[in-house]
Amino acid sequence: MTFELETAANPEKLRRVVIEPVSRVEGHGKVTLLLDDDNRVHQARFHIVEFRGFEKFIQGRPYTEVPVLVQRLCGICPVSHHLGATKAMDMIIGAKLTPSAEKLRRLMHFGQILQSHALHFYYLASPDLLFGFDSDVAKRNIVGVAAAFPDIARQGVALRKYGQEIIRLTAGKRVHGTGAIPGGVNKNLSREERVFLRKDIDQIVSWSQAAVELIKRIYTGNPDFHNGFGYFKSSFMSLVRDDGALDLYHGGLRARDEHGQDIFDHVDYGHYWDYVHEEVRPWSYMKFPFIRSRGREEGWYRVGPLARVVNCDFIPTPLAEAERKVFREFGGGSATQATLAYHWARMIEMLHAAEGIQELLLDNDLSGDDLVNTGTPALRGVGVIEAPRGTLIHHYRVNEDGLIVRANLIVSTTHNNQAMNEAVRQVALQYLDGQEVTEGLLNHIEVAIRAFDPCLSCATHAVGKMPLEVELVDAGGNVVSRLNKAPDGRCGV
Amino acid sequence: MSKTISIDGQSVPFEEGQTIMDAALAAGVYIPHLCHNPEFTPHGSCKLCTVKVNGRNVASCTMPAVEGQEVLNDTEELNADRLALTQMLFVEGNHLCPACEKSGNCQLQAVAYYLGMMSPHYNHFYPQREVDASHPDVILDRNRCIYCELCVRASRDADGKCVFGMSGRGIGSSLVVNSASGRLGDTNLAVTDKAVQVCPTGAILIKGKGFTVPIGRRIFDHYTIKQIQTGGGPHE
Ligand code: SF4
Ligand code: FES
Q: How many residue pairs bridge chain A and chain B with CB atoms within 8 Å of each other?
């Protein structure tokens, strides 16, 4: 553990390096490093710069509006917020979903996983993985990938587009649709629409297989490096189905420690606060959640693809399940706690999503007409879903009139806050300690963050993108040098 | 022989007692409007329907048609003024179309599209306005009220109730409801009242409906407001 790097003993004597915000991470991420004159790392922190109180903003709004409104939190996974909030509203109106409604929502969610994982891997991570973390920065982007590996880039684009088509047809629009409503969905999928989607799904499944092969080849081609990069161990938390299967849409909460032992299992998320608490630290806007029974120091955990693939007992689609086994067995299980293994697990999940879509498209319930249910209303609703980057908690209280009085959101990035800090510190120690700081070395830190999350905006409930600025500041706070990075990764001084 | 006026050079017949707006709508000529609804007495407050008659600006929804009038309607200048008025309506209230369930069925939004509005242009006022959800079936979100008084007229003239009224003047105006507590839930409004159906924006909504109509099946997904209001589809 590197808790000692969270706060340096004598910060006033140290040089400060600020990476702000992290490029190819959507939102306002900032990393600060405090270095002494010999470039030894004394403090490394990863924090979020901007804060916009979304929970405040929706106070006083009708609950029916929230599932559409919350999508504005995130440009990459609006559907996850849409579905997470709608699940909470199902509870508020007391509705149990009809089979058609649940399957249509699951389809929408698979579409979201597919498009987001494809974006994350191909657009944001593959440049590092294919070219090297300190390769020529001018080429280390999706345009560079398209030039050097046109087939890979083309498949990435097509996978993302297919996911967006699923979203468009289930939610009405590719971004910020309205498909899920409290108690169900507002549209089904016509037979023609299913035929249209079925046309390409076999291709999508096989390209998803190719994606798993690609990351497997990269990862296992240099196993010690990929296993060891920013390595640390932690607990994992995720939803699992009643039978222990991977389930991205619904289930009970399972947390397992770094040895694979249960901390809790099949927990009804309607009482998540009995199991997970959030700590506020003065230097970060983002909260630090922890598992109550393990306490503040020991209770942090990771969520997201790696957590899910390691936590589940099996994946309920055959191709992805076979890949899960390969992954678990690789190097005697050596990848199951590795930072970069997030990408491997992510591609296994993308394959699962593609298979899940393939299976659902054959289901006539998708074209059913029984789409909405009602029930006995309640004043509190909790919706939890496995968003592309991890467990997403939406929690609302409404008054008797149906207006929101309180909201609490715990997004994937927040769950992973401590873990991302940990990864940053490990990489700082492994690669930067005692070295002259270069763009390539700083990119190693970003690579670690991007393994978890290309998207930080939703964690502070802010929306935005900015170019990267790196500042080297001496002990007196004077800027020694400055490096600018455009969102495409290009640098200029 | 019926009497006629000319609108943008087109000869439009009218009957005695009709306004320019009445004559135009009957002839399928679209004059942008928001506070006007042919079912109710004209109000003349939004000024969107302003046309030029013999060189003077007049509200066509209140101006009687008179034999021989030369009316200019669909001109660049008038449409620019209408656009500016619409933009002002947007910034005066809190109109968050992306999160509003009326989106796609909203006349304010549809008029904005018709006039080619790309941005609000003016600085937002971000006024503090109240949401009243005390009624079991109806929600009143004053953030979206454009003070067209259609609900006032409908409640009074069609429902015989006077549930809604305006208070204050100019920028200090607000929509009030007729109960001692000032809450909608304590009025005698019924969900079936005409007043509930008539709001051109999302200020008066039926509770629990939310986004039940999918994108692609909303009125203005398929028609322009011009088509709807000149008889090309259902009148919302
Ligand atoms: S509530 Fe609707 S109908 Fe009533 S004045 Fe406001 S905008 Fe017009
Ligand atoms: S429509 Fe004539 S003034 Fe509003």
A: 62
Contact A346, A120 (CB under 8 A): yes
Q: What is the distance in A from the centroid of ligand 1 to the CA of B141?
A: 10
* Strand pairing category for A491-492 and B10-14: unpaired
Ligand 1: residues whose CB is within 6 Å? Answer: B 145-151, 164, 175, 198-199, 201, 203-204
3-state class (DSSP) for residue B56: strand
Structural domain spans, chain B:
3-74, 86-229
B3-74 to CATH, choices 2.60.120.10, 3.40.50.150, 3.10.20.740, 3.40.50.300? 3.10.20.740
The verdict on the CB of residue B71 being under 6 Å from ligand 2 is no
Same domain, yes or no, for A38 and A60?
A: no
State how far the Cα of A348 lies from the Cα of B7, in Å rounded to an integer.
66
| CATH T-level fold of B86-229 | Alpha-Beta Plaits (3.30.70)
- Which residue, among B181, B178, B170, B123, has the nearest Cα to B147 in the 3D structure? B170
CB contact under 8 A, A68 and B211: yes
Fold match flag (B3-74 vs B86-229): no
| Domain range enclosing A162 | 54-415
Q: How far is the CA of A120 from the centre of ligand 1 (A)?
A: 45
Handedness of CA B20, B25, B29, B33 (dihedral sign): positive
DSSP H/E element including B24 = helix B20-26
Give tens-digit pLDDT for B26-44: 999 999 999 999 999 999 9
Is A25 in the same domain as A150? no
Q: How far is CA B137 from CA A119, A200, B129, B188, B191, in A?
A: 43, 45, 20, 12, 6
> In chain B, what percentage of residues exceed pLDDT 70?
97
Question: pLDDT tens digits for A354-378?
Answer: 999 999 999 999 999 999 999 999 9
Count of structural domains, chain A? 3
How distant, in Å, are the alpha carbons of A107, A182, A326, A395, B227 from that of A89?
Answer: 19, 5, 39, 9, 37
Give me the interface pTM, i.e. the ipTM. 0.87
CB within 8 Å: A402 and B99:
no
Check if B63 has its Cβ closer than 6 Å to any atom of ligand 2.
no
- Which DSSP helix (H) or strand (E) runs through B50? strand B50-53
CB contact under 8 A, B215 and A173: yes
